[in-house]
Description:
Elements: E1 10-12, E2 19-20, E3 24-27, E4 32-35, H1 39-42, H2 48-55, E5 61-66, E6 71-82, E7 92-97, E8 100-106, E9 111-116, E10 121-125, E11 130-134, E12 142-147, E13 153-161, E14 165-167, E15 175-180, H3 182-185, H4 196-204, E16 207-212, H5 221-228, E17 234-238, H6 241-245, H7 251-268, E18 274-277, E19 292-294, H8 296-300, E20 306-308, H9 322-337, E21 343-346, H10 354-359, H11 370-385
Parallel strand pairs: 6-9, 15-16, 15-17, 17-18, 18-21
Antiparallel strand pairs: 1-13, 2-5, 3-4, 5-12, 5-14, 6-11, 6-13, 7-8, 7-12, 9-10, 19-20
Amino acid sequence: MATGSRPDWITTPITAGLLRGALDLERTAHGVLPHRLPARARAQCADAQLAMAESQPSGVRLALRTRATAVELDTLPTKRRYAGLPPRPDGLYDLLVDGRPAGQGSVSGGNTLHIDLTTGRLEHRPGPVGTVRFTGLPERDKDIEIWLPHNETTELVALRTDAPVGPAPDRGRRVWLHHGSSISHGSDAASPTATWPALAASRAGVELINLGLGGSALLDPFTARALRDTPADVISLKIGINLVNADLMRLRAFGPAVHGFLDTVRDGHPSTPLLVVSPILCPIHEDTPGPTAPDLAALAAGRPRFRAAGDPAERAAGKLTLAVIRDELARIVERRAAEDPHLHHLDGRALYGEADAAELPLPDELHPDAATHRRMGERFAELAFAAGGPFAVPGLSAHG
Protein backbone atom coordinates (compact mmCIF):
# COMPACT_ATOMS: atom_id res chain seq x y z
CA MET A 1 0.00 0.00 0.00
CA ALA A 2 1.07 3.58 -0.48
CA THR A 3 2.60 5.33 2.52
CA GLY A 4 3.32 8.94 1.65
CA SER A 5 2.54 10.19 5.17
CA ARG A 6 6.15 10.63 6.32
CA PRO A 7 7.04 14.35 6.32
CA ASP A 8 10.50 13.74 4.83
CA TRP A 9 9.26 12.14 1.61
CA ILE A 10 9.79 14.22 -1.53
CA THR A 11 7.31 13.55 -4.34
CA THR A 12 8.76 14.12 -7.81
CA PRO A 13 6.54 14.33 -10.91
CA ILE A 14 7.24 11.46 -13.32
CA THR A 15 8.14 12.97 -16.67
CA ALA A 16 9.67 11.68 -19.88
CA GLY A 17 13.03 13.04 -18.73
CA LEU A 18 13.15 10.47 -15.94
CA LEU A 19 12.41 7.52 -18.25
CA ARG A 20 14.49 5.59 -20.76
CA GLY A 21 13.27 3.03 -23.26
CA ALA A 22 9.81 4.54 -23.85
CA LEU A 23 8.79 6.33 -27.05
CA ASP A 24 5.70 8.02 -25.59
CA LEU A 25 4.17 8.90 -22.23
CA GLU A 26 0.39 9.02 -21.95
CA ARG A 27 -1.37 10.88 -19.15
CA THR A 28 -4.04 8.73 -17.50
CA ALA A 29 -6.57 9.14 -14.71
CA HIS A 30 -4.01 7.69 -12.29
CA GLY A 31 -0.70 9.06 -13.55
CA VAL A 32 1.30 8.32 -16.69
CA LEU A 33 1.55 5.23 -18.88
CA PRO A 34 4.78 4.53 -20.80
CA HIS A 35 4.30 3.34 -24.35
CA ARG A 36 6.82 1.65 -26.63
CA LEU A 37 5.06 2.86 -29.77
CA PRO A 38 4.13 6.49 -30.41
CA ALA A 39 0.50 7.64 -30.41
CA ARG A 40 0.34 7.94 -34.19
CA ALA A 41 1.38 4.31 -34.57
CA ARG A 42 -1.11 3.13 -31.96
CA ALA A 43 -3.89 4.99 -33.76
CA GLN A 44 -3.27 2.98 -36.92
CA CYS A 45 -4.00 -0.45 -35.45
CA ALA A 46 -6.89 -1.60 -33.26
CA ASP A 47 -5.38 -5.02 -32.50
CA ALA A 48 -5.77 -5.89 -28.80
CA GLN A 49 -2.61 -8.01 -28.80
CA LEU A 50 -0.50 -5.11 -30.08
CA ALA A 51 -2.09 -2.71 -27.58
CA MET A 52 -1.23 -5.06 -24.73
CA ALA A 53 2.31 -5.75 -25.94
CA GLU A 54 3.44 -2.21 -26.63
CA SER A 55 2.08 -0.96 -23.28
CA GLN A 56 4.08 -3.60 -21.40
CA PRO A 57 7.28 -1.70 -20.59
CA SER A 58 9.99 -4.18 -21.60
CA GLY A 59 13.27 -2.31 -21.33
CA VAL A 60 11.63 0.81 -19.87
CA ARG A 61 13.26 2.11 -16.73
CA LEU A 62 13.32 5.12 -14.44
CA ALA A 63 16.85 6.57 -14.58
CA LEU A 64 17.62 8.87 -11.64
CA ARG A 65 20.54 10.71 -10.05
CA THR A 66 20.13 11.13 -6.30
CA ARG A 67 21.51 10.76 -2.77
CA ALA A 68 18.27 9.11 -1.65
CA THR A 69 18.51 6.04 0.58
CA ALA A 70 14.83 5.12 0.13
CA VAL A 71 12.61 5.09 -2.97
CA GLU A 72 8.91 4.35 -3.27
CA LEU A 73 7.07 3.97 -6.56
CA ASP A 74 3.27 3.76 -6.70
CA THR A 75 2.03 1.94 -9.78
CA LEU A 76 -1.14 0.47 -11.23
CA PRO A 77 -0.15 -2.76 -12.98
CA THR A 78 -2.33 -4.78 -15.32
CA LYS A 79 -1.72 -8.48 -14.77
CA ARG A 80 -2.72 -11.28 -17.13
CA ARG A 81 -4.72 -14.30 -16.04
CA TYR A 82 -5.17 -17.18 -18.50
CA ALA A 83 -8.25 -19.38 -18.20
CA GLY A 84 -7.34 -22.88 -17.04
CA LEU A 85 -3.72 -22.02 -16.16
CA PRO A 86 -2.15 -21.30 -12.76
CA PRO A 87 -1.87 -17.61 -11.86
CA ARG A 88 1.24 -15.90 -13.19
CA PRO A 89 3.63 -14.49 -10.58
CA ASP A 90 3.59 -10.74 -10.01
CA GLY A 91 5.91 -8.83 -12.32
CA LEU A 92 9.31 -7.85 -10.96
CA TYR A 93 10.93 -4.44 -10.66
CA ASP A 94 14.74 -4.59 -10.88
CA LEU A 95 16.80 -1.97 -9.05
CA LEU A 96 20.27 -1.06 -10.30
CA VAL A 97 22.61 1.25 -8.39
CA ASP A 98 25.48 2.58 -10.52
CA GLY A 99 24.74 -0.20 -12.99
CA ARG A 100 24.84 -3.06 -10.47
CA PRO A 101 21.87 -5.15 -9.28
CA ALA A 102 20.75 -3.87 -5.88
CA GLY A 103 17.27 -5.25 -5.28
CA GLN A 104 13.98 -6.54 -6.63
CA GLY A 105 10.36 -5.94 -5.72
CA SER A 106 6.84 -6.40 -6.99
CA VAL A 107 3.43 -4.77 -6.70
CA SER A 108 0.42 -6.81 -5.64
CA GLY A 109 -3.11 -5.92 -6.65
CA GLY A 110 -3.70 -3.89 -9.75
CA ASN A 111 -5.96 -4.52 -12.71
CA THR A 112 -6.36 -7.98 -14.21
CA LEU A 113 -6.86 -8.94 -17.84
CA HIS A 114 -8.55 -12.34 -18.06
CA ILE A 115 -7.70 -14.16 -21.30
CA ASP A 116 -9.27 -17.30 -22.73
CA LEU A 117 -6.77 -18.75 -25.22
CA THR A 118 -9.37 -21.11 -26.68
CA THR A 119 -11.81 -18.34 -27.64
CA GLY A 120 -9.68 -15.18 -27.62
CA ARG A 121 -12.09 -13.55 -25.17
CA LEU A 122 -10.66 -10.74 -23.00
CA GLU A 123 -12.16 -9.36 -19.79
CA HIS A 124 -10.68 -6.39 -17.91
CA ARG A 125 -11.25 -6.13 -14.15
CA PRO A 126 -10.10 -3.02 -12.25
CA GLY A 127 -7.96 -3.18 -9.13
CA PRO A 128 -6.03 -0.95 -6.67
CA VAL A 129 -2.77 0.96 -6.93
CA GLY A 130 0.20 -0.64 -5.14
CA THR A 131 3.72 0.33 -4.07
CA VAL A 132 7.19 -1.08 -4.62
CA ARG A 133 9.74 0.10 -2.05
CA PHE A 134 13.54 0.05 -1.96
CA THR A 135 15.41 1.07 1.21
CA GLY A 136 18.93 0.98 2.62
CA LEU A 137 20.52 2.51 -0.48
CA PRO A 138 24.01 4.02 -0.11
CA GLU A 139 23.95 7.64 1.09
CA ARG A 140 25.94 9.19 -1.73
CA ASP A 141 25.36 10.59 -5.17
CA LYS A 142 24.53 7.65 -7.44
CA ASP A 143 22.69 6.61 -10.56
CA ILE A 144 19.55 4.60 -9.85
CA GLU A 145 17.59 2.63 -12.43
CA ILE A 146 14.25 0.97 -11.71
CA TRP A 147 13.43 -1.40 -14.55
CA LEU A 148 9.67 -1.86 -14.87
CA PRO A 149 8.12 -5.32 -15.27
CA HIS A 150 8.64 -6.40 -18.86
CA ASN A 151 5.34 -8.32 -18.96
CA GLU A 152 2.89 -6.09 -17.06
CA THR A 153 1.31 -2.91 -18.37
CA THR A 154 2.39 -0.42 -15.70
CA GLU A 155 0.86 2.98 -15.01
CA LEU A 156 3.22 5.14 -12.96
CA VAL A 157 1.30 6.95 -10.24
CA ALA A 158 3.83 8.57 -7.85
CA LEU A 159 7.57 8.64 -7.12
CA ARG A 160 8.74 9.39 -3.58
CA THR A 161 12.28 9.60 -2.22
CA ASP A 162 13.96 10.84 0.96
CA ALA A 163 16.25 13.17 -1.02
CA PRO A 164 15.85 15.18 -4.21
CA VAL A 165 16.12 13.35 -7.54
CA GLY A 166 16.87 14.41 -11.08
CA PRO A 167 17.41 12.65 -14.38
CA ALA A 168 20.49 10.44 -14.59
CA PRO A 169 23.05 12.15 -16.83
CA ASP A 170 23.89 10.94 -20.31
CA ARG A 171 26.97 8.74 -19.86
CA GLY A 172 27.73 8.77 -23.57
CA ARG A 173 26.76 5.16 -24.16
CA ARG A 174 25.62 4.17 -27.61
CA VAL A 175 21.89 3.56 -28.14
CA TRP A 176 20.82 0.13 -29.42
CA LEU A 177 17.33 0.06 -30.96
CA HIS A 178 15.93 -3.45 -31.29
CA HIS A 179 12.68 -4.82 -32.72
CA GLY A 180 11.38 -8.37 -32.49
CA SER A 181 8.68 -10.72 -31.22
CA SER A 182 7.67 -11.98 -27.77
CA ILE A 183 11.10 -13.62 -27.54
CA SER A 184 12.70 -10.17 -27.73
CA HIS A 185 9.91 -8.73 -25.56
CA GLY A 186 10.99 -11.12 -22.80
CA SER A 187 8.58 -14.10 -22.91
CA ASP A 188 9.56 -16.20 -19.87
CA ALA A 189 12.68 -14.31 -18.79
CA ALA A 190 13.33 -14.20 -15.05
CA SER A 191 13.04 -10.41 -14.70
CA PRO A 192 13.18 -7.20 -16.77
CA THR A 193 16.99 -7.03 -16.74
CA ALA A 194 17.15 -10.73 -17.65
CA THR A 195 15.49 -10.60 -21.07
CA TRP A 196 18.01 -11.51 -23.73
CA PRO A 197 18.15 -7.94 -25.16
CA ALA A 198 18.66 -6.44 -21.67
CA LEU A 199 21.41 -8.93 -20.91
CA ALA A 200 23.12 -8.25 -24.24
CA ALA A 201 22.88 -4.49 -23.70
CA SER A 202 24.41 -4.79 -20.24
CA ARG A 203 27.31 -6.89 -21.49
CA ALA A 204 27.90 -4.52 -24.41
CA GLY A 205 27.60 -1.32 -22.34
CA VAL A 206 24.85 0.22 -24.49
CA GLU A 207 21.51 1.88 -23.82
CA LEU A 208 18.63 -0.35 -24.91
CA ILE A 209 15.39 0.68 -26.57
CA ASN A 210 13.46 -2.58 -26.85
CA LEU A 211 10.65 -2.67 -29.39
CA GLY A 212 10.17 -6.39 -28.95
CA LEU A 213 6.39 -6.67 -29.25
CA GLY A 214 4.84 -9.97 -28.22
CA GLY A 215 2.85 -11.44 -31.10
CA SER A 216 3.27 -8.22 -33.06
CA ALA A 217 6.51 -8.29 -35.06
CA LEU A 218 4.50 -8.31 -38.27
CA LEU A 219 6.37 -5.91 -40.59
CA ASP A 220 3.78 -3.23 -39.82
CA PRO A 221 4.57 0.06 -41.60
CA PHE A 222 3.81 2.09 -38.45
CA THR A 223 6.44 0.11 -36.54
CA ALA A 224 8.97 0.78 -39.30
CA ARG A 225 8.19 4.50 -39.04
CA ALA A 226 8.66 4.39 -35.26
CA LEU A 227 12.08 2.83 -35.80
CA ARG A 228 12.84 5.39 -38.51
CA ASP A 229 12.08 8.29 -36.21
CA THR A 230 13.91 7.01 -33.08
CA PRO A 231 17.52 8.16 -32.69
CA ALA A 232 19.90 5.21 -32.45
CA ASP A 233 23.53 4.28 -32.98
CA VAL A 234 22.88 0.65 -33.92
CA ILE A 235 19.66 -1.13 -34.93
CA SER A 236 18.62 -4.78 -35.08
CA LEU A 237 15.46 -6.32 -36.53
CA LYS A 238 14.48 -9.87 -35.61
CA ILE A 239 11.97 -11.00 -38.21
CA GLY A 240 9.93 -14.13 -38.79
CA ILE A 241 8.26 -16.10 -36.03
CA ASN A 242 5.16 -13.91 -35.61
CA LEU A 243 4.49 -13.96 -39.36
CA VAL A 244 4.25 -17.75 -39.11
CA ASN A 245 2.31 -17.68 -35.83
CA ALA A 246 -0.35 -15.44 -37.38
CA ASP A 247 -0.22 -17.06 -40.83
CA LEU A 248 -0.19 -13.46 -41.96
CA MET A 249 1.18 -13.52 -45.50
CA ARG A 250 2.57 -15.66 -48.27
CA LEU A 251 6.07 -15.65 -49.72
CA ARG A 252 4.98 -13.31 -52.55
CA ALA A 253 4.08 -10.63 -50.01
CA PHE A 254 6.89 -11.35 -47.56
CA GLY A 255 9.85 -10.29 -49.70
CA PRO A 256 8.43 -6.88 -50.72
CA ALA A 257 7.23 -6.30 -47.15
CA VAL A 258 10.76 -6.86 -45.81
CA HIS A 259 12.19 -4.54 -48.46
CA GLY A 260 9.63 -1.86 -47.60
CA PHE A 261 10.31 -2.18 -43.88
CA LEU A 262 14.04 -1.83 -44.44
CA ASP A 263 13.52 1.08 -46.83
CA THR A 264 11.52 2.96 -44.20
CA VAL A 265 14.09 2.35 -41.46
CA ARG A 266 16.83 3.48 -43.83
CA ASP A 267 14.94 6.71 -44.56
CA GLY A 268 15.77 7.81 -41.02
CA HIS A 269 19.02 5.91 -40.52
CA PRO A 270 20.76 5.82 -43.92
CA SER A 271 24.16 4.63 -42.66
CA THR A 272 23.49 3.27 -39.17
CA PRO A 273 24.72 -0.31 -38.64
CA LEU A 274 21.58 -2.40 -39.24
CA LEU A 275 21.43 -6.10 -38.39
CA VAL A 276 18.65 -8.36 -39.70
CA VAL A 277 18.25 -11.43 -37.48
CA SER A 278 16.32 -14.46 -38.71
CA PRO A 279 14.29 -16.68 -36.34
CA ILE A 280 15.84 -18.84 -33.66
CA LEU A 281 15.14 -22.55 -33.93
CA CYS A 282 11.51 -23.45 -33.23
CA PRO A 283 11.03 -27.13 -34.13
CA ILE A 284 7.25 -27.04 -34.54
CA HIS A 285 7.49 -24.39 -37.27
CA GLU A 286 10.76 -25.18 -39.02
CA ASP A 287 8.95 -26.90 -41.89
CA THR A 288 5.29 -26.60 -40.87
CA PRO A 289 3.43 -23.35 -41.62
CA GLY A 290 1.15 -21.51 -39.21
CA PRO A 291 -1.11 -20.60 -37.75
CA THR A 292 0.08 -21.40 -34.23
CA ALA A 293 -2.69 -22.70 -32.00
CA PRO A 294 -2.95 -23.51 -28.30
CA ASP A 295 -2.65 -27.20 -27.46
CA LEU A 296 -6.07 -27.72 -25.92
CA ALA A 297 -5.15 -31.01 -24.26
CA ALA A 298 -2.20 -29.36 -22.51
CA LEU A 299 -4.37 -26.39 -21.51
CA ALA A 300 -6.93 -28.75 -20.02
CA ALA A 301 -4.10 -30.19 -17.93
CA GLY A 302 -3.07 -26.70 -16.81
CA ARG A 303 0.05 -26.43 -18.98
CA PRO A 304 0.63 -23.74 -21.60
CA ARG A 305 1.67 -25.33 -24.85
CA PHE A 306 1.41 -24.49 -28.54
CA ARG A 307 1.25 -26.48 -31.76
CA ALA A 308 1.66 -25.82 -35.47
CA ALA A 309 -1.77 -25.95 -37.09
CA GLY A 310 -0.69 -25.57 -40.71
CA ASP A 311 -0.10 -28.22 -43.36
CA PRO A 312 3.48 -28.72 -44.66
CA ALA A 313 2.05 -29.39 -48.14
CA GLU A 314 0.92 -25.74 -48.28
CA ARG A 315 4.53 -24.57 -48.62
CA ALA A 316 4.09 -25.16 -52.34
CA ALA A 317 1.41 -22.45 -52.36
CA GLY A 318 3.75 -19.95 -50.67
CA LYS A 319 2.91 -20.51 -47.01
CA LEU A 320 5.73 -19.40 -44.74
CA THR A 321 7.82 -21.61 -42.49
CA LEU A 322 10.87 -20.59 -40.48
CA ALA A 323 13.15 -22.37 -42.94
CA VAL A 324 11.60 -20.46 -45.85
CA ILE A 325 11.88 -17.16 -43.99
CA ARG A 326 15.54 -17.71 -43.12
CA ASP A 327 16.44 -18.42 -46.75
CA GLU A 328 14.54 -15.38 -47.99
CA LEU A 329 16.01 -13.02 -45.39
CA ALA A 330 19.54 -14.18 -46.21
CA ARG A 331 18.88 -13.61 -49.90
CA ILE A 332 17.36 -10.14 -49.35
CA VAL A 333 20.18 -8.95 -47.11
CA GLU A 334 22.87 -10.29 -49.44
CA ARG A 335 21.30 -8.47 -52.38
CA ARG A 336 20.81 -5.17 -50.53
CA ALA A 337 24.23 -5.28 -48.85
CA ALA A 338 25.86 -4.91 -52.26
CA GLU A 339 24.73 -1.27 -52.13
CA ASP A 340 24.41 -0.93 -48.34
CA PRO A 341 27.71 -1.78 -46.61
CA HIS A 342 26.21 -1.13 -43.17
CA LEU A 343 23.52 -3.83 -43.56
CA HIS A 344 24.24 -7.19 -41.96
CA HIS A 345 22.59 -10.58 -41.43
CA LEU A 346 22.62 -13.03 -38.50
CA ASP A 347 21.09 -16.49 -38.66
CA GLY A 348 18.99 -16.75 -35.51
CA ARG A 349 20.10 -20.34 -35.01
CA ALA A 350 23.47 -18.94 -33.93
CA LEU A 351 21.61 -17.66 -30.85
CA TYR A 352 19.56 -20.84 -30.31
CA GLY A 353 19.98 -23.85 -32.55
CA GLU A 354 19.73 -27.63 -32.67
CA ALA A 355 22.21 -28.36 -29.89
CA ASP A 356 20.58 -25.75 -27.65
CA ALA A 357 17.11 -27.20 -28.27
CA ALA A 358 18.37 -30.62 -27.19
CA GLU A 359 19.77 -29.16 -23.96
CA LEU A 360 17.22 -26.41 -23.28
CA PRO A 361 13.97 -27.24 -25.13
CA LEU A 362 11.34 -24.53 -25.46
CA PRO A 363 8.97 -25.34 -22.55
CA ASP A 364 5.78 -24.43 -24.42
CA GLU A 365 7.22 -25.23 -27.88
CA LEU A 366 7.47 -21.52 -28.66
CA HIS A 367 9.14 -19.37 -25.97
CA PRO A 368 12.62 -19.62 -24.40
CA ASP A 369 12.96 -20.04 -20.64
CA ALA A 370 15.14 -17.94 -18.35
CA ALA A 371 18.31 -19.98 -18.96
CA THR A 372 17.87 -19.69 -22.72
CA HIS A 373 17.39 -15.91 -22.48
CA ARG A 374 20.74 -15.70 -20.70
CA ARG A 375 22.44 -17.83 -23.33
CA MET A 376 20.94 -15.79 -26.18
CA GLY A 377 21.92 -12.50 -24.55
CA GLU A 378 25.52 -13.62 -24.07
CA ARG A 379 25.75 -14.89 -27.63
CA PHE A 380 24.22 -11.79 -29.19
CA ALA A 381 26.61 -9.55 -27.27
CA GLU A 382 29.53 -11.59 -28.60
CA LEU A 383 28.28 -11.94 -32.18
CA ALA A 384 27.03 -8.37 -32.64
CA PHE A 385 29.00 -6.10 -30.30
CA ALA A 386 32.40 -7.75 -29.86
CA ALA A 387 35.38 -7.13 -32.13
CA GLY A 388 34.56 -8.08 -35.68
CA GLY A 389 30.80 -7.86 -35.12
CA PRO A 390 28.52 -5.46 -37.00
CA PHE A 391 28.02 -3.33 -33.86
CA ALA A 392 31.64 -3.26 -32.72
CA VAL A 393 32.98 0.15 -31.81
CA PRO A 394 34.74 1.52 -34.92
CA GLY A 395 38.48 0.94 -34.68
CA LEU A 396 38.14 -1.94 -32.20
CA SER A 397 40.44 -4.75 -33.23
CA ALA A 398 40.20 -8.43 -32.45
CA HIS A 399 42.69 -7.76 -29.63
CA GLY A 400 40.63 -4.89 -28.17
